[in-house]
Specification:
The complex is a heterodimer of chains A (about 270) and B (about 240). Chain A has about 270 residues and is mostly helical. Chain A contains nine helices and no strands. In chain B, a hairpin with a 2-residue loop joins strand 4 and strand 5 (about 65). The two termini of chain B are about 35 Å apart. The chains are: A mainly alpha (about 270), B alpha/beta (about 240).
């Protein structure tokens, strides 16, 4: 016979419905609070940043120099595909120089900053989280504290500063290569003369567009590095915890980047 | 002197410490014995402020650790050397850089002096010409020695050892035990050693504290432990006889 006391009451069932989403919301705000507190501590100790200048240079190389090939590769194909698809959509409708204008605007305002950020969320963000997460589970972060170092100033500040400084540089390189790729795609595949492409590019170019992309790069650089560092610091358990945190880091940074992309476009354009 | 009074600590649902009391006297080596995962290492981390107890008092040389500001806590940490269970060497740095890191940050030594001190610290742990090696290229026993060299580089007053012989073969473990004893006589440090290895404990310890179910069930000398009728304590003595 079934024990009637095993059946939850209606009130318990209703409470159960709210339990999981309620817990998720609480966890979200708990992490947001801890993240803000870490960033606050980093900013408070910013005056010590020069003591770790060696670490900052090292991270600039890791985040910036080492990412140039992948950023250029992606940008080149983004430019080419944008130009080929634009010419396909606009064929015979409007002057062909419009393709040059369209590619330039799309690349500077949206495509290069966003795609660079998404690619680097995977490359740089995942690397940072895995590195710091491994340091956490192998007690290297505890060892730093035991040696009277501030782990936030020593590990997080250099990475975030390097991200803020190097992401815009990568966006500039990406812009240049994407436009060249667009020009190549237009002339080689869509049959649009280079002169027509350049005419369209010149007629539509505004300095603010390029500057807006650089601002986006700076903001995305901050988001990707700071969130990845935070995720790495929060790792618990062993290698499973590092893997989970790395996945979370990529998901959270990608989502944060697309949301911030919309916010920046709404506010600044 | 280090004094722990009525320490309580909980992690989630698990009550790890239930009113822990302990006194560590100057220049002695106190060994904390207990089963793995019982909360012994947490005690070491609480002593240098890496973790905070939920309640209770921790005093180091009369200073209350739990109420220190961040800066005061960092200054207090200069008094401590900490050998972590897995040595916790910074794997992106060479052996030499691991040892000199704290010296460069916290002392006014010139490059030549730092080099000298790194060599001296390595000599104390019986290592030579390994400064340029990466931690991934050295054995587990060597890692512990380098961890020890890093911990003593700033000539601490207190040494905290977290499972110093775990994962090592008998010969290497004996070497580490010997080093712990030598450092005590050479540097005159006060040491707290956390271990579940009774054999090592009796080689290095002056006094012993048995940690069971969140409390110290007994504190005393080797003879006190050996002659104790307490069945929980007898378990350790029997495991020594078996080994």
């Amino acid at each position: 016979m079934t024990d009637p006391t095993n059946h939850p009451s209606l009130a318990e069932r209703i409470a159960g419905l709210f339990h999981r989403p309620g817990r998720s919301i609480l966890t979200f705000f708990e992490h947001l609070g801890r993240y803000m507190s870490t960033i606050g501590w980093m900013l408070y100790n910013f005056r010590n940043a020069k003591e770790y200048s060696g670490n900052i240079m090292q991270q600039m190389v890791m985040i910036g120099n080492n990412s140039i090939p992948i950023v250029l590769f992606v940008s080149m194909f983004v430019g080419m595909v944008t130009s080929v698809q634009s010419s396909y959509q606009l064929y015979d409708w409007i002057p062909r120089s419009v393709v040059g204008a369209l590619v330039t605007k799309s690349v500077l305002l949206e495509l290069t900053p966003l795609l660079t950020a998404l690619v680097l969320a995977g490359k740089v963000g995942a690397t940072i989280t895995a590195e710091l997460g491994t340091m956490r589970v192998t007690e290297q972060i505890d060892a730093l504290e035991a040696l009277a170092f501030d782990p936030v100033s020593f590990l997080i500040t250099p990475r975030v500063l390097a991200g803020i400084l190097m992401f815009p540089v990568l966006v500039i390189f990406g812009d240049l290569v994407a436009i060249l790729g667009g020009m190549f795609g237009a002339s080689a595949i869509a049959g649009i003369p280079v002169e027509a492409f350049v005419d369209g590019m010149q007629s539509s170019f505004e300095t603010w567009d390029a500057f807006f992309g650089i601002i986006k790069g700076t903001v995305f650089g901050f988001i990707i590095t700071s969130v990845s560092c935070y995720q790495g610091f929060q790792v618990q358990g062993g290698s499973e915890g590092v893997g989970k945190a790395t996945m979370n880091s990529v998901v959270v940074t990608c989502l944060s980047v697309v949301v911030m992309d919309f916010v920046l476009a709404s506010v600044l354009l | 002197m280090i004094t722990l009074t009525n320490i309580w600590k909980r992690f989630g649902e698990k009550q790890v410490h239930q009113g822990v009391n302990l006194e560590v006297r100057d220049h002695e080596t106190l060994v904390i014995l207990g089963r793995s995962g019982g909360g012994k290492s947490v005690l070491l981390k609480m002593i240098i402020g890496l973790l905070k107890p939920d309640s209770g008092s921790i005093a180091v040389d009369g200073k209350e650790v739990t109420t220190l500001s961040y800066k005061q806590l960092q200054r207090l940490r200069f008094k401590f050397g900490f050998l972590f269970q897995g040595a916790a060497l910074f794997d992106s740095m060479t052996v030499g850089q691991n040892i000199e890191l704290a010296l460069r940050r916290h002392s006014d030594f010139k490059d030549a002096d730092i080099e000298e001190r790194v060599k001296y610290a390595l000599e104390l742990v019986k290592l030579k010409n390994v400064e340029h090696l990466m931690p991934s290229n050295i054995s587990g026993g060597m890692k512990k020695r380098v961890g020890l060299a890093r911990a003593i580089a700033l000539t601490p007053k207190y040494m905290l050892y977290d499972e110093p012989t775990t994962g090592l073969d008998v010969e290497t473990a004996d070497g580490i035990n010997l080093l712990i004893n030598e450092l005590k006589t050479t540097l005159g440090v006060t040491s707290i050693v956390v271990t579940h290895d009774i054999h090592s404990a009796f080689v290095i310890g002056d006094r012993f504290a048995i940690f069971e179910n969140g409390q110290f069930i007994m504190t005393g000398t080797k003879d006190d432990i050996r002659n104790s009728p307490n069945p929980e304590v007898r378990k350790y003595i029997e495991s020594e006889i078996e080994t």
